Amino acid sequence: MKNRKCLVLILSLFAVLFGTVAVPAQSGTNALTIGISVEPISLDPAGGLYVPEQFLIQQIFDPLIAADPALNLHPALAKSWEVNEDGTEFTFHLREDVKFQDGTKFTGEAVKISFDRAAKGTTVAAAAPTIFYDYIETQVVDDTTVVVKFSSPHATFLQDLTRPWLMISSPAAIEKYGEDYGQHPVGTGPFILKEWATQDHITLTKNPDYNWAPEYMAHNGPALLDEITFRFLPEQATRIAAFQSGEASLVQDPSYLEASQMATDPNVQLFTFVNPGMTSHQMINVEKAPTDDINVRKALIYAVDQETISQIAFYGLQPAAHSVISPSTWGYNEEAAQLYSYDPEKAAALLEESGWIDSNGDGIREKDGVNLHIEYPALPTYEEAFMELLASYLQKAGFEVNITKLDDAGISEFGFASKHNILNMGWISRDPAVLSYVYDSENIEGGNQSSYTRFRNDRLDEILRTAPQTIDEEARKALYQEAQMIIMENAIALPIHCYGSVYLADSNIAGFRFDPEGFPYLYEISITAE
């Protein structure tokens, strides 16, 4: 790729001085290097949770059922399926011509082993067990027929099957690698793990035997790329430098300023997608003062101008959010999103009503000799673009804000210990059922331990446990809309922005399109001649 003006030299020098990983430039016309922001923790579907894991797992593994960009369901490893009347038993008829990447045959036993593991989860924060609530068993009728049984209805199970957490693993590889399977994943997908250099990169090679792509894909047979290298580049400037220098032809979540400026360059392609699911929002801790007061929680929300944050922090590439669920998500409640708008005067009135006054003119409100203090643990990888701007809005309202920058593990520890007042959360998902992961109170002390609001509400818990079992679609939608209203009325979420997938690509990248959750179909991508 051609270097672009003096900015290239500056950014490249920055990268060299501050630790860009020394990985060779792309090795051939069919080799693609992608700059991503976060290294996965595990590539075991039964243990996955985070965005980078989702991105890579679906390159290595296949689902029983696949969803096209419009969420229509298609056969994948399963040729066909039936569901009983009450939505508790799902029968799948499997393909007979599929092999795992280790050469072993795909059979019903692999489905059973994969689902049994998913039901338990192989990490504390695994997403799969939440999907497998009330799981009874997977019955292997024969090599090509399985029946998955639950003790209660599962209205979303077919859609859930299309997601990475329920993709099918090689039983032989699970047995071979044991607890280390997440670093040695083996599936049936279009790419095979070649190398994982910790804190450096992951390289995948194409599966030469792959011949079972879903029918909505642009082609069948092996992937068009021979090799993909995912470089772990946490800093936006480093990712931009890698792109500018030609070391990466595709970068995820680049600097929004540079992305918006480079979009007019004929040598650059900019791809964006507004993700469904939970928005990026601050979960507000209702047990730690001062956010144990609903007036203070509401004041936090009224004090923040999300529209301006969207423009300043993201140059409009990440739309403003006004509720806990993205507008692109099925079941979105517009009424809940209209409960709050930027109103610093109302924020001030609510704080004064609760006795928080700036008595000494230092800009910080106090009550009974205690400052209006907010503990804000932040993960720069996801919050760097807006965390200081968010803090400045709160400071203007009279809050004293302490930002503690942590990694993923540190954030989880901080949140579980309830040391925070606000803590960022978001979750890409095509369905509002994802709310149960972090808003069901059983996940405060137990479960995935990610209910960082520490909010206990019997009706909200009832909804989040009942809705996934509700077969009637309109009734289910009404339940999730009520859940959104409860969350926003109780001011336990401070919305910031909708997630938007943003990728910068070299002009010779062809076949780029997004899946339903904003990840590119790497199977379809090719590299054209310059």
Automatic annotation (TrEMBL):
Residue ranges occupied by any Solute-binding protein family domain in the UniProt entry: 73-439
Example GO BP: peptide transport
Keywords tagged on the record: Signal
InterPro entries xref list: Peptide/Ni-bd, SBP_5, SBP_5_CS, SBP_5_dom
Pfam families found in the cross-reference section: SBP_bac_5
Transmembrane segments: none
A molecular function (GO) term: peptide transmembrane transporter activity
CDD domains (alphabetical): PBP2_NikA_DppA_OppA_like_15
SUPFAM superfamilies: Periplasmic binding protein-like II
Subcellular location: Cell membrane
Signal peptide: 1-27
Family classification: Belongs to the bacterial solute-binding protein 5 family.
Alphabetized PANTHER family for the sequence: PERIPLASMIC BINDING COMPONENT OF ABC TRANSPORTER
The protein's name: ABC-type transport system, periplasmic component
Source species of the chain: Flexilinea flocculi
